[in-house]
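Data deposition worksheet. Section B asks for the primary sequence of the deposited chain exactly as it was used as input, without tags or linkers unless they were present during the calculation. Section C holds the resulting structure in token form. Section D is free text for depositor observations; keep each observation to a single sentence. Incomplete worksheets are returned to the depositor.
Section A, Depositor: J.P.
Section B:
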Amino acid sequence: MVSSTIITFLQRAVCQGIPLLYGATGEILTEKSGNLNLGIPGIMYVGGISGVIGSFLYENSLASRDLINPVLAVLIPVICTVFGSMLVGLIYCFLTVTLRANQNVTGLAITTFGVGFGNFFGGSLVKLTGSDVPSVALTATSNFFRKTLPFAETTGWFGKVFLSYGFLAYAAIIIAILCAVFLRRTRGGLHLRAVGENPATADAAGINVEKTKYFATCIGSVIAGLGGLYYVMDYACGVWSNEGFGDRGWLAIALVIFAIWKPDFAIFGSILFGGLYIVYLYIPGLALRTQELIKMLPYVVTIIVLIISSMRNKKENQGPQSLGLSYFREER
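Section C:
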């Protein structure tokens, strides 16, 4: 009984952590270029609703749900999510890199815009369906996103813990590892980190600062947007509900600090955060107030890590030196 509970807890912790991992990986890539994008929560909303819109239009174009094409059912929402989240990333870059607007204000505006965008179109889809329930269900499409490996059920507890997830969960881990390798082992990663540390020096060395920032921020936005798609299509079983994301976008930003700006560390951090986020469900007899206090644990852990890393004052554990600062070439 205890082992079954532990296995279930680990499964749910991973499922809770995958959206955070997408958001944190995208934000780490963005911050390494010197851009502080606090619009990640909004971008995850836009990514999620973009995929929902694409899937909704595709499903409703069919005479019967039995005619659904598995490839199109996956590709259409993924492509819509990529374009939607990249567009928001481009807007952020245009405002902060080209127009040199304040990054903090722009990020918060993007978050407000993204949440409003998602709620508006989510509500519009609900009206189109004529449903009495304030949500949109895309179960036919969701089944393809939630499809697990065929041998997951035959490998006991190992299969349940490691093999019983949809392809987007494994994609999140692969993307995080690839980002870590890119940042540490490639020339492009070195250029990106140089721009984040000292854009003036990078510019003098011949690195295109604006192009690098645009690249990192747009790719990071796409990765974060996929976290929104995962949440809707996999975790929420294809059901879109307004305000359904909760504070997961902000948890993803907190995870960046916890992972000390290392995407591979974020893999383990996301599972820890996912577990801390739901651990109150496995503690019997908790009062409502106590539950809310326990939900604060991921943020408390982040603050502790931030304090410890600041006290040690190791350069490799700190954020980029020029993080959040606009680059003015004329001041070089």
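Section D:
The mean pLDDT is 90.
Strands lie at 135-137, 239-241.
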